Amino acid sequence: MPELDNLMDALGQLPTPALVVDGPTVRRNLQRLADYAANVGLNIRPHTKTHKSRRLVQMQLEAGAIGVTVAKASEAEAISDPGQDILMAYPPVGDSRAKRLAELAGDRNVRAAVDTLAAVHVASAAAVGSGTTVGLLVDLDVGMGRTGVPSPDATLPIAQAIDRAPGLRLDGIMVYPGHIWHTVDEQSAALQAVGNLIGETLELWARHGLQATIVSGGSTPTAYQSHLVGNLTEIRPGTYIFNDMNTVRGGFCTIEDCSARILATVVSDAVAGQVILDAGSKTLTNDRCIPAPDSGHGHIVEFAGAKITRLSEEHAQVDVTACSSKPAVGDRVTVIPNHICPCVNLRDEMWWCEPNDFPRHLMVNARGKVQ
Question: What class is the 23-243 domain?
Fold first, then answer.
């Protein structure tokens, strides 16, 4: 984040730990994905669970996104505006969640993903009760093993139920290739296997008079290989806007592409070979790095040999024995977290940085919106 080097005096005045975001890097990340999607004929529906910010939603839409993805109905309420197109990539199960989503459909184009008949029935009742129409996508598991029906055949009864249900509209298919963490050069076979499952599903639906106008997929690790899937109409990456050590160590971006970092202060060096940062698990979370689980709890940019070995709530224990020099008490460092999404959700605000300007507040509007 070279732009931040010129801001260190200003950043030195911020209370720590602080989440700082580099505006030029964000814009570069947005433009890169927009250029790719335009070249391969895909729409972008970015997942807002990464940043949870109304302002960043607007930036994504201005960069060409056709709509946004959310995790929960409360998140949609917090970051969307009337007229926007929203996909909740989560089952609308629970009367409160289904009702809130259906009410949003009064002035927004709202969709959700389902993988059970129970979810279809709840969504239909909520839509009828609200006098709205909610679009549904059938969630097909393509290898993640989290949600989604297990086979193309299993999508059919759910699709038929949606097609018959009052208040609902059958919009298509959703997949999530979150199990694919191969290097970019090794993703082809796995992505083609995803495409084959989608193709089987589309053919099955067509034989029964059903159509999928939307085939939604994608993740940040697979984003720039999405054209290998085939049949996709849109992709839903989230982390790409900020990036983190998962995406760096996976080979999907560089350190320079990481626009969000934690500014932390060294508060102790009383133990030999160790310093303590004021950014513990309430800041960095305990998420391990998926491609490199033994790499520690994030990367300290200024001290490449340092390793964050342990987190407690307010402390990060950093092994500095491999460093040629070590930070002193009172020094500030920047940490790229392993997984940026939950780190954002732990903050009320970010500090937005532009060259030659003092960092500005940017609210995390959907912080804690998990219903």
Answer: alpha beta
- Beta strand 134-139 with 109-114: parallel, antiparallel or unpaired? parallel
Hey, what are 133's tokens?
Answer: 């129409």
Q: What confidence tens digit (pLDDT) does each residue in 19-69 have?
A: 999 999 999 999 999 999 999 999 999 999 999 999 999 999 999 999 999
More confident residue, 285 or 356: 285
Q: CA–CA separation, 266 vs 315, rounded Å? A: 10
Q: How far from 278 is each of 40, 281, 319, 339, CA to CA, in Å?
A: 44, 10, 15, 18
Q: pLDDT digit string (tens) for 165-219?
A: 999 999 999 999 999 999 999 999 999 999 999 999 999 999 999 999 999 999 9
Sequence-ordered strand ranges (E) for the chain: 18-22, 43-44, 68-70, 85-88, 109-114, 134-139, 168-174, 214-217, 234-235, 260-268, 274-277, 299-300, 307-311, 316-319, 332-336, 349-353, 360-363
d(CA 227, CA 191): 9
**Helix 152-164, helix 188-207: angle, nearest 10:** 50
Is the distance from CB of 126 to CB of 102 less than 8 angstroms? yes
Question: What's the pLDDT at 4?
Answer: 45
What is the Cα Rg of the chain in Å? 22
Helix, strand, coil percent values for the chain (each to nearest 5):
35, 20, 45
The mean predicted confidence, pLDDT, of the chain is: 96
Peptide bond just before 17 cis, omega within 30 deg: yes
Calculate the alpha carbon distances from 98 to 80, 107, 131, 159, 354 in Å: 17, 16, 13, 18, 40
Q: What is the DSSP string of 207-218?
A: HTT---SEEEE-
Which band of pLDDT confidence, cut at 50, 70 and 90, is reported for residue 3? very low
**How is domain 2-20+246-363 classified at the CATH fold level?**
Lyase, Ornithine Decarboxylase; Chain A, domain 1 (2.40.37)
Domain chopping of the chain, boundaries: 2-20+246-363, 23-243
pLDDT value at residue 262: 98
Chain segment 105-115, per-residue pLDDT in tens: 999 999 999 99
pLDDT at residue number 5:
52
What 3-state class would DSSP assign to 240? helix
Check for a shared fold between 2-20+246-363 and 23-243: no
